[in-house]
Amino acid sequence: MDETRRDRDAEGRARNARPRDGLGRPLPYGAAGVDRQPEGVIRTPEETLREAQRLLDAGMPFHAHEVFEDAWKSGPVAERELWRGLAQLAVGLTHAARGNTTGGARLLRRGAAALAGFGTTRPHGIGVDGLIGWAEELAGRVEAEKACGADAARVRPVDAAGEAPCLRPRGR
Is 8 helix (H, G, I), strand (E, B) or coil? Predict the structure, then answer.
């Protein structure tokens, strides 16, 4: 592959074909990476939640974000804020796992705010209130670590798999 030219898809749109790790970070061309999520896949809400939970549990929140993004872009208008909020939570976890405490906390809180309007409805069995609490708690923890004087080189990234939220309470 000619690394000086931009990767393009069949329609000529820019697409980065570099392999990526489990947190979505680009790796050098030719390196073994994690399979990327195909874009534009239309899934049922059940399929979306099942695939996103699998990816979150595997410590791959960046990839779960892509699954939520497909639902956000293809789902009913009334649910777009729900899927966008879930995508933001996944990206917030991604940033926190990469050691970006500021971006991680900001996106976790933004995602929690987007979900706030769905708290009493439990769409598709999603434990919205629990996710909001999880996001606020994690955002507070990553900010507190930075506030304790840790410089950027010493901030401990969170364990993406260990911190993975449960989208729906077990047994649903």
Answer: strand
Q: Which parts of the chain register pLDDT below 70?
A: 1-16, 147-155, 171-172
CB-CB neighbours of 42 under 10 Å: 11
3-state DSSP assignment of residue 26: strand
Distance CA 73, CA 69 (A): 6
Look at residues 66, 60, 110, 116 and name the one whose alpha carbon lies nearest to residue 89.
110
User: What is the tens place of the pLDDT at every residue in 92-101?
Assistant: 999 999 989 8
Q: Do 107 and 91 contact (CB within 8 A), yes or no?
A: yes
Let me know: does 83 contact 167? Beta carbons within 8 Å. no
User: Would residue 59 be called left, alpha or beta, if left means φ above 0 and alpha means ψ between -120 and 50 degrees?
Assistant: left
Would you call 157 exposed, middle or buried from its count of C-beta atoms within 10 A (0-12, 13-18, 19+)? middle
- Under 8 Å between Cβ of 97 and 129: no
Angle of CA points 144, 150, 152, to nearest 5°:
110
* pLDDT tens figures, 47-67: 999 999 999 999 999 999 999
What whole-number distance in Å separates Cα of residue 133 and Cα of residue 125?
Answer: 16
**Cα gap 73→139, rounded to integer Å:** 26
The CA distance from 160 to 118, in Å, is 25
pTM of the predicted model, to two decimals? 0.84
